[in-house]
Amino acid sequence: MTERIRTLVLTGMSGAGKTVAMQSLEDAGYFCIDNLPPILLPKFLDVVGQSGGRISKVALACDLRGGEWFEPLLEMVKQLRLNQSLELSIVYLDASDEVLVRRYKESRRRHPIAPSMTLLEGIAKERAALEQIRNAADVVLDTSHWRPNRLKQEIIQRFAEHQPRMPVHIVSFGFKYGIPIDADMILDVRFLPNPYYIDDLRPLTGEDERVFEYVMQWPATQEFIKRTEGLLQFLIPEFRKEGKSHLVIGIGCTGGKHRSVAISCYLAQSLQNLSDIQLIHRDSRREG
Protein backbone atom coordinates (compact mmCIF):
# COMPACT_ATOMS: atom_id res chain seq x y z
CA MET A 1 0.00 0.00 0.00
CA THR A 2 1.33 3.43 -0.93
CA GLU A 3 2.12 5.63 2.06
CA ARG A 4 -0.31 8.51 2.48
CA ILE A 5 1.00 12.03 1.94
CA ARG A 6 0.87 13.99 5.18
CA THR A 7 -0.66 17.36 4.28
CA LEU A 8 -0.96 20.31 6.63
CA VAL A 9 -3.02 23.35 5.68
CA LEU A 10 -1.71 26.13 7.92
CA THR A 11 -3.94 29.14 8.43
CA GLY A 12 -5.09 31.56 11.11
CA MET A 13 -4.73 35.10 12.31
CA SER A 14 -2.09 37.37 10.81
CA GLY A 15 0.61 37.87 13.44
CA ALA A 16 -0.08 34.58 15.21
CA GLY A 17 3.15 32.95 14.03
CA LYS A 18 2.60 31.36 10.61
CA THR A 19 6.09 32.35 9.41
CA VAL A 20 7.78 30.67 12.39
CA ALA A 21 5.52 27.63 12.01
CA MET A 22 6.33 27.24 8.31
CA GLN A 23 10.06 27.58 8.96
CA SER A 24 9.78 24.92 11.66
CA LEU A 25 7.91 22.56 9.35
CA GLU A 26 10.53 23.10 6.65
CA ASP A 27 13.22 22.17 9.19
CA ALA A 28 11.19 19.03 9.95
CA GLY A 29 11.34 17.94 6.31
CA TYR A 30 8.04 19.27 4.98
CA PHE A 31 7.76 20.66 1.46
CA CYS A 32 6.40 24.13 2.23
CA ILE A 33 4.53 26.67 0.10
CA ASP A 34 3.32 29.99 1.48
CA ASN A 35 0.14 31.81 0.44
CA LEU A 36 -1.06 29.20 -2.06
CA PRO A 37 -4.54 30.03 -3.41
CA PRO A 38 -6.87 27.25 -2.16
CA ILE A 39 -8.24 26.67 -5.67
CA LEU A 40 -4.77 25.38 -6.64
CA LEU A 41 -4.57 22.87 -3.78
CA PRO A 42 -5.96 19.87 -5.72
CA LYS A 43 -3.71 20.46 -8.73
CA PHE A 44 -0.64 20.92 -6.58
CA LEU A 45 -1.31 17.79 -4.54
CA ASP A 46 -1.88 15.83 -7.74
CA VAL A 47 1.64 16.80 -8.78
CA VAL A 48 2.96 15.77 -5.35
CA GLY A 49 1.20 12.41 -5.71
CA GLN A 50 3.09 11.84 -8.95
CA SER A 51 6.48 12.47 -7.31
CA GLY A 52 7.06 8.77 -6.76
CA GLY A 53 7.32 9.18 -2.98
CA ARG A 54 10.01 11.85 -3.14
CA ILE A 55 7.61 14.23 -1.37
CA SER A 56 5.77 12.64 1.54
CA LYS A 57 5.07 15.65 3.78
CA VAL A 58 3.56 18.94 2.60
CA ALA A 59 2.71 22.15 4.46
CA LEU A 60 0.63 24.82 2.74
CA ALA A 61 0.01 28.24 4.27
CA CYS A 62 -3.28 29.82 3.19
CA ASP A 63 -4.69 33.02 4.64
CA LEU A 64 -6.75 36.08 3.84
CA ARG A 65 -3.90 37.68 1.95
CA GLY A 66 -5.25 35.65 -0.96
CA GLY A 67 -8.39 37.81 -1.02
CA GLU A 68 -11.29 36.25 -2.87
CA TRP A 69 -9.07 33.28 -3.79
CA PHE A 70 -9.05 32.31 -0.10
CA GLU A 71 -12.82 31.84 0.09
CA PRO A 72 -12.95 28.29 -1.39
CA LEU A 73 -10.56 26.88 1.25
CA LEU A 74 -13.10 24.88 3.23
CA GLU A 75 -14.70 23.49 0.06
CA MET A 76 -11.30 22.49 -1.30
CA VAL A 77 -10.40 20.78 1.99
CA LYS A 78 -13.67 18.81 1.95
CA GLN A 79 -12.89 17.58 -1.57
CA LEU A 80 -9.30 16.69 -0.72
CA ARG A 81 -10.34 14.66 2.31
CA LEU A 82 -12.06 12.26 -0.09
CA ASN A 83 -8.62 11.46 -1.51
CA GLN A 84 -7.44 8.29 0.22
CA SER A 85 -3.81 9.02 -0.59
CA LEU A 86 -3.80 12.15 1.61
CA GLU A 87 -3.69 12.53 5.39
CA LEU A 88 -4.92 16.12 5.61
CA SER A 89 -5.20 18.38 8.66
CA ILE A 90 -6.04 22.05 9.14
CA VAL A 91 -3.76 23.79 11.63
CA TYR A 92 -5.08 27.12 12.88
CA LEU A 93 -2.84 29.64 14.65
CA ASP A 94 -4.55 32.15 16.92
CA ALA A 95 -3.66 34.81 19.49
CA SER A 96 -5.54 37.33 21.59
CA ASP A 97 -6.38 40.76 20.20
CA GLU A 98 -4.11 42.41 22.77
CA VAL A 99 -1.12 40.27 21.78
CA LEU A 100 -1.74 40.76 18.06
CA VAL A 101 -1.90 44.54 18.49
CA ARG A 102 1.37 44.49 20.43
CA ARG A 103 3.09 42.39 17.77
CA TYR A 104 1.94 44.75 15.02
CA LYS A 105 3.16 47.73 17.03
CA GLU A 106 6.55 46.11 17.57
CA SER A 107 6.96 45.28 13.88
CA ARG A 108 5.46 48.63 12.75
CA ARG A 109 3.25 46.83 10.24
CA ARG A 110 -0.25 47.67 9.08
CA HIS A 111 -2.84 44.95 9.06
CA PRO A 112 -2.45 43.14 5.69
CA ILE A 113 -6.16 42.81 4.90
CA ALA A 114 -7.35 46.14 6.33
CA PRO A 115 -4.53 48.68 5.91
CA SER A 116 -6.87 51.68 6.10
CA MET A 117 -8.53 50.55 9.34
CA THR A 118 -7.27 50.67 12.91
CA LEU A 119 -5.44 47.55 14.05
CA LEU A 120 -8.34 46.44 16.23
CA GLU A 121 -10.82 46.91 13.37
CA GLY A 122 -8.59 44.91 11.03
CA ILE A 123 -8.16 42.12 13.58
CA ALA A 124 -11.90 41.97 14.20
CA LYS A 125 -12.60 41.81 10.46
CA GLU A 126 -10.09 39.00 9.98
CA ARG A 127 -11.33 37.05 13.00
CA ALA A 128 -14.91 37.16 11.71
CA ALA A 129 -13.85 36.05 8.23
CA LEU A 130 -11.89 33.09 9.65
CA GLU A 131 -14.50 31.89 12.15
CA GLN A 132 -15.70 28.96 10.05
CA ILE A 133 -12.15 27.89 9.28
CA ARG A 134 -11.26 27.97 12.98
CA ASN A 135 -14.29 25.85 13.86
CA ALA A 136 -13.31 23.29 11.23
CA ALA A 137 -9.62 23.14 12.22
CA ASP A 138 -8.15 19.87 13.44
CA VAL A 139 -5.56 21.65 15.57
CA VAL A 140 -5.85 25.14 17.10
CA LEU A 141 -2.69 26.62 18.61
CA ASP A 142 -3.03 29.76 20.72
CA THR A 143 0.37 31.48 20.60
CA SER A 144 -0.59 34.42 22.83
CA HIS A 145 1.90 33.52 25.55
CA TRP A 146 4.49 31.76 23.40
CA ARG A 147 7.83 33.05 22.28
CA PRO A 148 8.89 31.91 18.77
CA ASN A 149 11.02 29.09 20.21
CA ARG A 150 8.03 27.73 22.12
CA LEU A 151 5.95 27.66 18.93
CA LYS A 152 8.80 25.93 17.09
CA GLN A 153 8.99 23.25 19.79
CA GLU A 154 5.24 22.70 19.65
CA ILE A 155 5.27 22.34 15.85
CA ILE A 156 8.17 19.89 15.94
CA GLN A 157 6.64 17.80 18.73
CA ARG A 158 3.26 17.58 17.02
CA PHE A 159 4.18 17.19 13.36
CA ALA A 160 7.76 15.92 13.06
CA GLU A 161 8.23 12.17 12.84
CA HIS A 162 11.21 12.51 15.10
CA GLN A 163 13.03 15.35 16.85
CA PRO A 164 15.68 16.55 14.37
CA ARG A 165 19.20 16.50 15.72
CA MET A 166 20.88 19.89 15.84
CA PRO A 167 23.94 19.96 13.54
CA VAL A 168 27.11 20.83 15.46
CA HIS A 169 30.10 21.92 13.36
CA ILE A 170 33.47 21.58 15.06
CA VAL A 171 35.91 23.75 13.12
CA SER A 172 39.66 23.67 13.71
CA PHE A 173 41.41 26.85 12.60
CA GLY A 174 44.55 28.94 12.91
CA PHE A 175 44.36 32.28 14.69
CA LYS A 176 46.95 33.63 12.26
CA TYR A 177 44.36 33.24 9.48
CA GLY A 178 41.48 34.79 11.43
CA ILE A 179 38.60 33.54 13.55
CA PRO A 180 35.73 31.75 11.69
CA ILE A 181 33.10 34.44 11.19
CA ASP A 182 30.19 32.04 11.78
CA ALA A 183 31.51 30.60 15.06
CA ASP A 184 29.17 30.61 18.08
CA MET A 185 31.95 29.58 20.47
CA ILE A 186 35.74 29.87 20.30
CA LEU A 187 38.11 27.64 22.28
CA ASP A 188 41.81 28.57 22.30
CA VAL A 189 44.28 25.65 22.65
CA ARG A 190 47.48 27.64 22.11
CA PHE A 191 48.41 26.96 25.75
CA LEU A 192 49.29 23.35 24.82
CA PRO A 193 52.83 22.29 23.77
CA ASN A 194 53.22 22.88 20.04
CA PRO A 195 54.22 19.97 17.72
CA TYR A 196 55.37 22.59 15.20
CA TYR A 197 58.68 22.78 17.08
CA ILE A 198 59.31 19.03 16.67
CA ASP A 199 61.07 18.69 13.32
CA ASP A 200 59.61 15.33 12.29
CA LEU A 201 56.08 16.34 13.39
CA ARG A 202 56.03 19.74 11.70
CA PRO A 203 55.01 18.50 8.21
CA LEU A 204 52.18 16.38 9.65
CA THR A 205 48.76 17.42 10.92
CA GLY A 206 46.71 16.62 14.01
CA GLU A 207 44.99 13.87 12.03
CA ASP A 208 48.25 11.90 11.96
CA GLU A 209 48.60 9.43 14.82
CA ARG A 210 52.03 10.67 15.95
CA VAL A 211 50.88 14.29 16.24
CA PHE A 212 47.61 13.24 17.87
CA GLU A 213 49.44 11.21 20.53
CA TYR A 214 51.89 14.06 21.14
CA VAL A 215 49.09 16.55 21.74
CA MET A 216 47.05 14.17 23.89
CA GLN A 217 49.87 13.06 26.20
CA TRP A 218 49.94 16.20 28.36
CA PRO A 219 48.03 16.49 31.67
CA ALA A 220 46.84 19.94 30.58
CA THR A 221 45.32 18.38 27.45
CA GLN A 222 43.44 15.77 29.45
CA GLU A 223 42.14 18.36 31.90
CA PHE A 224 41.04 20.65 29.04
CA ILE A 225 39.23 17.81 27.29
CA LYS A 226 37.50 16.71 30.50
CA ARG A 227 36.22 20.22 31.20
CA THR A 228 35.27 20.92 27.57
CA GLU A 229 33.35 17.66 27.19
CA GLY A 230 31.38 18.43 30.34
CA LEU A 231 30.61 21.95 29.12
CA LEU A 232 29.45 20.81 25.66
CA GLN A 233 27.43 17.89 27.04
CA PHE A 234 25.52 20.48 29.04
CA LEU A 235 25.31 23.22 26.41
CA ILE A 236 24.31 21.28 23.28
CA PRO A 237 20.97 19.98 24.69
CA GLU A 238 20.27 23.42 26.17
CA PHE A 239 20.90 25.15 22.82
CA ARG A 240 18.65 22.59 21.12
CA LYS A 241 15.92 23.15 23.71
CA GLU A 242 16.13 26.90 23.15
CA GLY A 243 15.47 26.35 19.43
CA LYS A 244 18.93 26.91 17.99
CA SER A 245 19.10 25.38 14.51
CA HIS A 246 22.85 24.70 14.44
CA LEU A 247 25.99 25.33 16.49
CA VAL A 248 29.51 26.18 15.27
CA ILE A 249 32.38 25.57 17.70
CA GLY A 250 35.75 26.95 16.67
CA ILE A 251 38.89 25.38 18.13
CA GLY A 252 41.98 27.39 17.35
CA CYS A 253 45.74 27.15 17.66
CA THR A 254 48.39 29.28 16.00
CA GLY A 255 48.38 27.77 12.51
CA GLY A 256 45.37 25.46 12.65
CA LYS A 257 47.44 22.43 11.72
CA HIS A 258 48.38 20.44 14.81
CA ARG A 259 46.84 21.13 18.24
CA SER A 260 43.43 22.42 17.13
CA VAL A 261 43.07 19.57 14.64
CA ALA A 262 43.91 16.88 17.20
CA ILE A 263 41.56 18.33 19.83
CA SER A 264 38.76 18.75 17.26
CA CYS A 265 39.13 15.14 16.13
CA TYR A 266 38.90 13.90 19.70
CA LEU A 267 35.84 16.00 20.56
CA ALA A 268 34.03 15.09 17.33
CA GLN A 269 34.45 11.42 18.18
CA SER A 270 33.50 11.72 21.85
CA LEU A 271 30.37 13.82 21.19
CA GLN A 272 29.03 11.95 18.15
CA ASN A 273 26.19 10.32 20.09
CA LEU A 274 25.04 13.66 21.46
CA SER A 275 24.25 15.39 18.17
CA ASP A 276 24.89 15.47 14.42
CA ILE A 277 28.61 16.27 14.56
CA GLN A 278 30.39 17.57 11.47
CA LEU A 279 34.15 18.05 11.57
CA ILE A 280 35.89 20.73 9.47
CA HIS A 281 39.63 21.44 9.36
CA ARG A 282 39.77 24.89 7.86
CA ASP A 283 43.49 25.56 7.81
CA SER A 284 45.26 22.22 8.26
CA ARG A 285 46.48 22.02 4.65
CA ARG A 286 47.83 25.55 4.42
CA GLU A 287 51.53 25.96 3.87
CA GLY A 288 53.61 28.02 6.28
UniProtKB/TrEMBL annotation:
Domain of life, per UniProt, equals Bacteria
Which is an annotated Pfam family here? RapZ-like_N
What sequence ranges are listed for the domain RapZ-like N-terminal?
Answer: 7-161
Q: Where does ATP bind?
A: 12-19
Could you list this entry's UniProt keywords, alphabetically sorted: ATP-binding, GTP-binding, Nucleotide-binding
Indicate the segments annotated as coiled coil, or none if absent.
none
GO function terms (MF aspect): ATP binding; GTP binding
Q: Which InterPro entries match?
A: P-loop_NTPase, RapZ-like, RapZ-like_N, RapZ_C
| Alphabetical list of PANTHER family matching this protein | RNASE ADAPTER PROTEIN RAPZ
Per its record, how is this protein called by name? UPF0042 nucleotide-binding protein
